[in-house]
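Exam revision sheet. Question 4 asks you to relate a sequence to its structure. Input first:
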Amino acid sequence: MRRPVTAAAVLFSLLATGCGATVAKPPAKAPASSSSSAVTLTNCGQRVTYDRVPKRVVTNDVGITELMFALGLEDRMAGFAMPDDKGDLTGVPWKDGYDKVKWLSRQQLTKENVLDARGDWVFAGWNYGFRDDNGFTPDALKKLGIPSYVLTESCRNGRTKSSRGIMPPLEALYTDLTNLGKLFGVEQRAAALIAGFKKQVAAVAAKAPTGSARPKVFLYDSGTDSPFTSGRYAAPEEVISKAGGVNVMNDLADSWTTVGWESVVERDPDVIVICDYGDVSAEQKRRFLLSYAPLRNVTAVKHQRIFVLDYVDLVESPRNPSAIARLGGYLRSVADTTKPAS
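Answer key, structure tokens:
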């Protein structure tokens, strides 16, 4: 990240993962296209033409990698780069993909990784691999003759040099699945996944609290002096809102960004969601939040309403809908306990 036949004819079942999540199980794998004809897509608002279907894709990070796996495209992959702090991968629905595709690096993706893997297409994002300061950018890859695709959640929006996000987060997820489906010739599979995800999200939203009963939620990623959190263009915005909550930072026209603790205190969230990853454990983050003096009068802290989701739940990935379902259950219980007596 910074520092987831026609579609209507497909029946979805739920597959439980090792960490208690459920995801819509995709239909049987369809063969990817072997066509060499050009495909034109819209990526970050720009029309981009790919001359041929990639055969040796290199990806950065867990959410992006699992988008490829969810579409059954592991045979098109040369490898992925991913820090090893993204949770247990043994019980995920795409374990076969992780078993089959080479783990190139435990660090951020580099040009050297791509060249060593003989990659012919790179799928990454701004602050999800692509960075100006280290020279790993789509333009740099283009000079090497290697095309790329930018994760839609991470598209720069031009409001500032680094601000990101051009559409609602679930729309970004569906956009990328649709584009990948078109490029790799698995459009029906992509459409079926999207239909299943929409059905799963709609089922949660139908039971979610409404109006003033919607709990206010703060997403805590990291940071002690200043918290790193999510504005309205990163996945937590709709993970929270579709689950029945209100992201207290949804007025920020950015994806992931730093705010001040005073703004958290002022907005007084009812619930804090911790993003679990990195060297600082979720339990360590929880203890910090509960002991940090400036937060002592915040409702979520006073009532110890802290919920944990994995990193991959909270970046664009095929696990976003299951995260909505799990958080939705928790927020309904919060709304029930805070409901005024009749």
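Marking note for examiners. DSSP finds twelve helices and 16 strands in the chain.
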